[in-house]
Specification:
Blueprint: E1 5-16, E2 22-33, E3 37-41, H1 48-55, E4 63-68, E5 71-72, E6 88-91, H2 95-98, H3 105-118, H4 126-132, H5 149-162, E7 167-171, H6 179-196, E8 199-204, H7 207-213, E9 216-221, E10 224-230, H8 231-236, H9 241-248, H10 265-269
Parallel strand pairs: 3-8, 3-9, 6-7, 7-8
Antiparallel strand pairs: 1-2, 1-4, 4-5, 9-10
Helix pairs in contact: 3-5, 4-5, 5-6
Protein name: ABC transporter ATP-binding protein
Pfam families: ABC_tran, oligo_HPY
Keywords: ATP-binding, Nucleotide-binding, Transport
Length: about 280
């Protein structure tokens, strides 16, 4: 990792319409350096995906700011995205909904290549990116329905990385995959992002995978970050009761499993954030 900060999100607040409005994200801040993988973990509904959408410029935060390469991120609108912001790429949970079923996958990877060329980067070929993600280069002429779920996710990763991003936002990218491929796909993303000198925000509820690939981890609950620090520190010495409850629920390799101790409603209501562990 270098000293260059690719993402600096400050005091993000995301609200959704309702009566009263739903506060999905409440004052979240995070920074990601070039070559660094930062994980955002927490149970369903904790606000992880809302952070991802705000960081990527899909949703406009109600408060706070997102700086990408020191410049503000403008939310997507009806106009084409600013050329510089094509250096932010996103990989979604379900590749079946993010790939166009009517277009050959090689053409879709070429969209990423075109985004990189528009920023003045050297041209590449879809076959190069297929090879990098472990797919047969002869498959570039196929359509998405001719791939398995894991293969389609690799196509989606190839398309995102072909744009030569400075920041990859991966929102639960492995949760729809079978257990045998989850870790390998996550490790592939980490290695390719590091090779490109990019940063990655990796969003997951799977702490076992996060432990293997993330440099730092932020633990979210109820729209707030409860604990943050180097992944190894959080894994070995969790300080927040919510982090401890998440870790307690991870199955152990012998199949016996751990017995999670569910926090009471009163305990959850009393939770506050713990100051971050410094590297």
């Amino acid at each position: 990792m270098t000293d260059r900060i690719v993402l600096d999100a400050r005091d993000l607040v995301v609200r959704y319409p309702g009566s009263p409005p739903v506060v999905a994200v409440d004052g979240v801040s995070l920074r990601i350096g070039a070559g660094e993988t930062v994980a955002l973990v927490g149970e369903s509904g904790s606000g992880k995906s809302s952070v991802a959408r705000a960081v990527a410029g899909i949703d406009r935060p109600a408060e706070g700011e997102v700086l990408f390469d020191s410049a503000p991120v403008s939310p997507l609108g009806i106009r084409r995205r600013a050329r510089s912001l094509t250096a932010i790429q996103m990989v979604f949970q379900d590749p079946s909904t993010s790939l166009n079923p009517r277009r050959r996958v090689g053409d879709q990877v070429s969209d990423g290549i075109a985004a990189a060329r528009a920023r003045g980067l050297a041209a590449s070929r879809p076959e190069e990116w297929f090879e990098r993600v472990g797919l047969d280069t002869s498959w570039v002429s196929r359509f998405p329905h001719q791939f398995s779920g894991g293969q389609k996710q690799r196509v989606a990763i190839a398309r995102a990385l072909a744009a030569r991003p400075h920041l990859l936002v991966a929102d639960e990218p492995i949760s729809a995959l079978d257990a045998s491929t989850q870790t390998s796909v996550a490790a592939l993303m980490r290695d390719l992002v590091a090779e490109l000198g990019a940063g990655m925000l990796f969003i997951s509820h799977d702490l076992a995978v996060v432990r293997r690939i993330a440099d730092r981890t932020l633990v979210m609950y109820g729209g707030r970050v409860m604990e943050t620090g180097p992944t190894a520190e959080i894994w070995d010495s969790p300080r927040h009761p919510y982090t401890r409850s998440l870790l307690a629920a991870i199955p152990v390799p012998d199949g016996a499993g751990r017995i999670p101790v569910a926090p009471t409603a009163d305990e959850r209501a009393s939770w506050t954030a713990i100051p971050p562990i410094e590297n």
